[in-house]
Amino acid sequence: MPARARLIRGMTDPAAPRVRTLFTAEEIAGRVRTLAAEIARSEPQNLLVVIVLKGGFVFGADLVRALAGEGVRLEIEFISLASYGTALETSGEVRIRRDIEVPVAGRDVLIVDDVLDSGLTLKFARDLMHQRGVRRAAIAVMINKPEGRRAQIEGDYVGFTCPNYFVVGYGMDAAHAWRELPFVGVLESAPDEPAER
Ligand code: IMP
Ligand code: MG
Questions:
Q1: Residue 129 burial by CB count (10 A; 0-12/13-18/19+): exposed, middle or buried?
Q2: 98 contacts 50 by C-beta, under 8 angstroms
Q3: Would you give the DSSP letter of residue 47?
Q4: Ligand nearest to the backbone CA of 185
Q5: Which of 10, 47, 93, 175 would bridge with 84, disulfide CB 3.0–4.6 Å?
């Protein structure tokens, strides 16, 4: 069933999965403004914002506009990364599905993603940027889940820290659904589909 139909069904069908709000759109907007102000204070030089697809697209879109409001000049690129393994267990190996299209040597790069969980994806992305000779690579994530960490990495700019929930909304999906929700929530139950990433 398409996500939209599921959302509508969820309003009427008690058996449909429900999303319990963890962070409201207003709370998220407040954090985005605060993070943008922090990033602006770091005085990034020749800033390239690298948005990690797909999950980082909503946070990335909000963050770059908040940065513009802070007077930060920047350019935007996208990278799509995938980790090998099953939906529930990652092998730890990350590969590039779609790369950025500009050289990054000497630039300040801000890598933007939805979730920092095991950290394997963002560790790979940051190492890649360092290999390519960036001046500075910082990481911004909306959700930090420290309990899942397997790589030694922390976010430089973090929206919210939460327990090891599987969260959806604000770009984050469960089995390709729920990315469009304007808030971050946790699935209460998904009787007809597993809540896989
Ligand atoms: P990592 O485990 O830190 O490498 O995270 C890899 C990717 O898994 C993240 O960029 C997200 O796209 C996805 N992910 C991890 N936890 C969640 C979650 O709770 N909800 C949705 N996606 C998640
Ligand atoms: Mg992701």
A1: buried
A2: no
A3: E
A4: 1
A5: 93
Ligand 1 contact, 187 CB (< 6 A): no
Task: Tell me the pLDDT tens digit for each residue of 27-46.
Answer: 999 999 999 999 999 999 99
Positions annotated as catalytic residues are 117
Contacts for 73 with CB less than 8 Å, ≥ 6 apart = 47
Q: Which residue, among 22, 69, 11, has the nearest Cα to 183 in the 3D structure? A: 22
- Pocket perturbation via mutation, ligand 1, pick of 95, 172, 179 by most ligand atoms within 8 A of CB: 172
**What torsion do the CA atoms of 98, 48, 184, 164 make, to the nearest 10 degrees?**
70
Instruction: Give me the phi and psi of 179, to 5 degrees please.
Output: -60, -30
- What tens digit of pLDDT does each residue of 83-112 get? 876 656 667 789 999 999 999 999 999 999
Q: Which residue has the tokens 């207003």?
A: 26
Which tokens in the block code for residue 144? 């930090």
